[in-house]
Design a protein that fits this description.
Elements (H helix, E strand, L loop, with lengths): L7 H22 L1 E7 L8 H4 L4 E7 L19 H5 L7 E7 L5 H7 L2 H18 L3 E5 L21 H16 L4 E7 L13 H7 L2 E5 L17 H14 L6 E6 L1 E6 L30 E5 L9 H9 L2 E3 L4 E6 L4 E5 L2 H15 L3 E5 L9 H11 L11
Parallel strand pairs: 1-2, 1-13, 2-3, 3-4, 4-5, 5-6, 6-7, 7-13
Antiparallel strand pairs: 8-9, 8-12, 10-11, 11-12
Helix pairs in contact: 5-6, 6-7, 8-10, 10-11
Length: 396
């Protein structure tokens, strides 16, 4: 039997169509996750939110899930239904559990088979009653280095490293395979105590994706200035997860819709060497308590009065570090280091990290934090809008 062989021009057209279809399929599968927070419960007009694939409502306290409870005891700042109605059809709405400083509830939950089962069943009940599409587990952090590190040593929490994947597995078993399950995970390698080559295969079986918090990469535990969400440090974070065995398609790169500031040492030469310059002591070295020499605020927040003059200079005289990949300003008069992502930085990180590393998606903390202009959201939107017209979700 003779089979006709198509000419080379026809073959080329077919291959091109297949390639385009593959690229579009990959785009359509790209995740675009937004945390919607109780502090800034603001949702932009439908046009700006059309490409968002997942919304995580932050937060539900983990401790509420350690005892038998009733639906009336499940505190959320809004309802899943109310949020779902403000986004495009097909947008998944999730409940985020935990958050910074919320560690004890997870520790209690992870301790035994019985406590894990109780916690997991309560998570399922939350999803069932609220109508959520899944949950985001935000334990900061299993194994230590959390907000309570000054009171509870990492050695006392070492058992959590092996208990963490067990807790996630219990939640997945309770939810079943059809619900979405993600986890917010640390951006700094020093905090990745539970992210190991031994634990990651177990963790990945439970999770649909990882929200890698590639922000707050400078915090009160540092003693010299650096970018809190720069390209270089973000790449180091992604590479650490790759080395641990996290599938690249399950990784979401994190973006911060807020500004951070730190007091620098007046005796240091920050005017000449702004990056890597010595800071003041930013927190109590014993208790970890905040000494009031560092902070953050969102683009929606009012700038604190004592910082307005310095921040105005920062916006007008901002610089970009080509090495570390971050926008900054070092105020040598008031001795303040400023660090944030500009709209241009967001686009650079998309091309330098998300596209080059072929990550599965992006996320940001948080949606309302970028109000009222939503300029950083627009910068993220451009990633989807310039790649063949977006994710093609139905309008509201």
């Amino acid at each position: 039997m003779l089979v006709p062989v198509p000419n080379s021009q026809y073959t080329g057209m077919v291959l091109l169509q297949i390639l385009v279809a593959m690229v579009m399929a990959q785009l359509c599968e790209s995740r675009y996750v937004m945390y919607l927070t109780g502090q800034h419960n603001i949702i932009p007009e439908p046009r700006l939110a059309a490409n968002i694939t997942h919304v995580a409502l932050a937060f539900m306290p983990s401790s509420r899930l350690n005892e038998p409870i009733t639906p009336l005891e499940w505190p959320l700042f809004t309802t899943v239904e109310a949020v779902r109605n403000q986004f495009a059809k097909g947008t998944s709405v999730m409940v985020a559990i935990g958050g910074w400083g919320d560690t004890q509830g997870f520790s209690t939950a992870a301790a035994t088979d019985e406590t894990r089962r109780l916690f997991a069943n309560n998570v399922k009940a939350v999803v069932d009653i609220t109508g959520a599409d899944g949950v985001d587990v935000d334990w900061e952090y299993p194994g230590g280095n959390g907000e309570d590190y000054g009171r509870i040593s990492n050695s006392e929490k070492a058992w959590e490293i092996e208990a963490y994947p067990k807790l996630l597995a219990a939640i997945r078993a309770a939810l079943g395979p059809d619900k979405i399950m993600s986890a917010a995970v640390p951006g700094l390698p020093r905090d990745m105590l539970a992210i190991t080559k031994n634990t990651i295969p177990k963790i990945s079986k439970s999770l649909d994706f990882y929200n890698i918090m590639t922000y707050d990469l400078m915090n009160r535990r540092d003693s010299v200035t650096k970018h809190h969400t720069g390209i270089q440090l973000s790449l180091e974070s992604i590479d650490a997860y790759l080395a641990a065995g996290v599938p690249v398609e399950k990784m979401n790169l994190g973006f911060a819709f807020y500004v951070k500031w730190f007091r620098t040492d007046p005796g240091a030469d920050c005017a000449t060497h702004p990056i890597g310059c010595k800071t003041l002591l930013l927190e109590d070295p014993v208790t970890g308590d905040d000494l009031g020499r560092a902070g953050a605020f969102s683009w929606h927040d009012e700038v604190p009065p004592d910082l307005r003059k310095s921040f105005s200079k920062a916006l007008n005289e901002a610089r970009y570090d080509d090495v570390g990949g971050g926008t900054y300003y070092s105020d040598s008069e008031e001795n303040i280091w400023w660090s944030w992502d500009s709209e241009a930085d967001i686009k650079r990180k998309i091309s330098t990290i998300v596209e080059k590393k072929r990550l599965g998606g992006v996320f940001a903390w948080g949606l309302g934090e970028d109000a009222p202009e939503f300029s950083h959201l627009k910068a993220l939107n451009s990633y989807f809008e310039t790649k063949g017209g977006g994710i093609f979700k139905d309008e509201l």
